Request: fold
Amino acid sequence: MNARISPPPTLRAVRMRLHAQHQPIAVMRTDCHVCHSEGLSPRSQVLVIAGERQVQALLYQIDSDLLSPGQVALSEAAWHALDIQEGAQVQVRHAPILRSLAGIRRRIHGQRLSAQDLDAIVRDVVAGRYTDVALSAFLTATAALPLDTEETVHLTRAMIDVGERLSWDAPVVVDKHCVGGLPGNRTTPLVVAIAAANGLIMPKTSSRAITSPAGTADTMETLAPVNLDLDTMRRVVETEGGCLAWGGTMALSPADDLFVRVERELDIDTEGQLIASVLSKKIAAGATHAVIDIPVGPTAKVRSHDAAHLLAQRLSETAAHFGLALRCLFTDGTQPVGRGIGPALEAMDVLAVLKHDPGAPQDLLDRAVLVAGAVLELGGAAAAGDGTRLALDTIASGRAWDKFQRICNAQGGLREPPRAAFIEPILAPHSGRVVHIDNRKLSRLAKLAGAPESPAAGVHLQVRLGDEIAKDQPMLFLHAQTRGELAYALEFSREAESLILVGS
Reply:
């Protein structure tokens, strides 16, 4: 007589409504029969299964009556991954052993990673199988011994292959990217409008802020809908030649945001990872030609011209492996661009430039036409050396503003950016000349004021390097939606040294 095999034990799912960003979390009682039978301990990785769906989660245990022994509480990330209803029956078991970790262990000991190694690592990362500890080990191992050109190419390809890849019915599809580190550098909406107005195809997907006061998608969302599905995106591009969409809905290079989040927590930013991050998103979006803006400055991401030239060389070498035509620009990274830092304030700068307002920030206009000019030349819409002039004419004639309105309306309608409830000046401590502006501290100040979660929050600059300023003259205005955030930001501004340094 055959022994009867018992079905695996199940638990009733409880929605915890815990928001832990990306992290799937499961909570169970210490006396839960599944914890005992599976030998599950706190902070172990578990596999939660609901029908055909499964998610790997971090386990916590409690000794209280908040849960019954037959329940498992799930965070929002886990709940959405499983797509279940309250009370659904789920299985919880040990997570499978990850073979890709062997590659990371070899890398820690100085061995290079193969294409197969990196493909396995990236697939496990995107599947949610890596803890932050494992992710940190991978990123640290590739920082201590930097990725070589071959590994960078393999990582770029793995990041492309694991996500969606868009294709367009056009021989030339242009794109642009800024490597970052410069607050207010919101040239993308201007470049897209200029490129599309001159007949180029530019289906721009952009990111939201991870640790900055605003990403391009955050700024654009104050002006028009950006959560476009692929069908809507294609319709907008087909009718207007360009779009300004959030890339998160497209699942383009989905490993990138996971890598970047942990890199920022570790405060490491390795060249190989940066190259793979930038190029995987351009290639996955279907670009054939791209311009990369590399700001250089003491508080920018790239600190020296030697480092900028080395980065440009490696970007170009890697891009060539994928047939992507690339042009790199070296720009001023010594101070923020425009006046606004924060989604709505940056959007107002963009609108001022597009409308050709007399008071529009000149530096944002200059940088936008420089980048757009390079895009026009690279994409064949302007002769060599004539791109900047054509870009400037496209702004001055109103053609860029008209195209921008048409793109926004095609995406769901142009709207007015919100305005902050509380505005407070930060005054100059004495008379003198502005000799230093700290990009990183200004970004921190804008975030403490509430950006980007409160779109109207941020910093509005009143001075630039070299300006003469009188004692008690406003250097900047803080914008906040709540008194608490305003007070918190004001306290930071009083404690921060060299936020804006005024020389005597």
